[in-house]
Amino acid sequence: MEIRKDLPEIFEDFSEARRNGFISAKQFKDQNKPMIGTFCTYMPQELPLAMGAAVVSLCATSDETIADAEVDLPRNLCPLIKSSYGFGKTDKCPYFYFSDLVVGETTCDGKKKMYEHMGQFKDVYVMQLPNTQFGDQAFELWKSEIVKLKELLEEKFDVEITEDAIKSAINLKNRERSALKDFYSLGKLNPPAISGGDILKVLYGSTFKFNREDTIEEVKNLTSRILDEYNSGKKLDSKPRILITGCPIGGVTEKVVKAIEDNGAYVVFFENCMGAKAIEENVSEDNNDVYAALAEKYLSIGCSCMTPNPNRITMLNKAIDEYKVDAVVDVLLQACHTYSVETLTIKQFVNKEKNIPYMSIETDYSTSDVGQLNTRMSAFIEML
Ligand code: BJ8
Fold first, then answer.
1. Could you confirm whether the keyword Metal-binding appears in this record (predicted)?
2. What is the Cα 190 distance to its own chain's centre?
3. Band of the pLDDT at 8, cuts 50, 70, 90?
4. Would you say residue 62 has pLDDT above 90?
């Protein structure tokens, strides 16, 4: 995989962010401030931020604790769920340990049933997410769930969360999303300025930094530095341009990005939850009803747990054009039913509407399929 060797320290900073974040998490907790753990992009982070809490993603990305999880959970379950549960159960994840409350949502069946067991050893609160994004009922349900979460946080942590504080948190998150969006929009450059592996490092690493103002500045500086250097001639080679969609990736599943980039292509856009799905749209700052504004943004996320799920297609359509994508790779975590079933819709759209090749690959949190991934990617990229 070709990387920009002249920018190592910044990329390493993001790459190491999860590990280094443990120390910042401890320092944060030492100040007696609350930490909220989340498992999903639907969770409106603005609410905990509005009471001065830190928000941390607990989605695990390694197979280290899967055997422990399988004592309680079925083997034929998505590795993200098993691994996340396993890290909680074994107390091996400091972020889980430091979380005063875990907030989940009723997304896929596996996750929502797992929360019932997790509730035996951790304080878990589950928001009732509707299965559809359409109709007043769905909107009103999600809005009322957001208000309920605010009330629960106020009661549990004995604080008042004012609408002004929520507005400030919306503004902060919007600036963070915009900085990250400007960064991953570097993927539009053709030939690319940086590899997909480096884009992912920054997107993943930024979720483990607690001083959000600093992170916004850091990401902005990185973007403008890369742009300046690109304009003065530092470019990668022209190669086929790949869009990754599907289940969340990060940690061990970066093996998919590596297999693509080691075999002659670049990933220029990540549609999944570590990328644009979470970041592309901001919360309206014009709407005086902050709960409606939050409900509108978060309910529109194009996840396969929704039926129907046209917002995923809308984003893919736009990104394939804007990022001049040559092919789409749909990443499925084993036993993820909603994304697996949705592959047919995505394949038909990509092949028939966009006239470009599509490939789906199923993987897990082991490294046993790396050889097979390389073989499949090399054959796929060769025909582009
Ligand atoms: S908004 S993608 S973070 S639900 S991969 S656990 S769906 S069986 S992670 Fe997700 Fe929220 Fe959607 Fe994003 Fe279930 Fe599938 Fe596993 Fe998944």
1. yes
2. 25
3. low
4. no
Domains of the chain: 27-164 (3.40.50.11890), 180-382 (3.40.50.11900)
Q: Tell which atom from ligand 1 comes closest to the C-alpha of 273.
A: 13
Token pair in block for residue 96: 């889980």
Ligand 1 pocket by C-beta < 6 Å: which residues?
40-42, 78, 80-81, 107-108, 110-111, 247-248, 273, 301, 303, 305, 333, 336, 338-339
Q: Give CA–CA dist 168/49, Å, rounded.
A: 9
* DSSP states along 130-185: -S-S-SHHHHHHHHHHHHHHHHHHHHHHT----HHHHHHHHHHHHHHHHHHHHHHG
In this structure, are residues 223 and 179 in contact, taking their beta carbons and an 8 Å threshold? yes
Distance (Å, whole) CA 161 – CA 149: 11
What mean pLDDT is predicted for residues 50-63? Answer: 90
pLDDT confidence of residue 23: 81
Whether residue 27 is predicted with pLDDT greater than 60 in this model: the reply is yes
Residue 28's pLDDT band, with cuts at 50, 70 and 90, is confident
Task: Report residue 197 as tokens.
Answer: 């592996």
Query: Which of 273, 311, 332 is the pocket-test mutation for ligand 1 (most atoms within 8 Å of CB)?
Result: 273
Report the C-alpha gap between 322 and 325 in whole angstroms. 8
Q: Indicate the top mutation candidate among 111, 204, 312 to test ligand 1's pocket, ranked by most ligand atoms within 8 A of CB.
A: 111
Contact 76, 335 (CB under 8 A): yes
Amino acid making up residue 144: S
Digit-coded pLDDT (tens) for 166-196: 999 999 999 999 999 999 999 999 999 999 9
CA pair distance 192, 230, nearest whole angstrom: 9
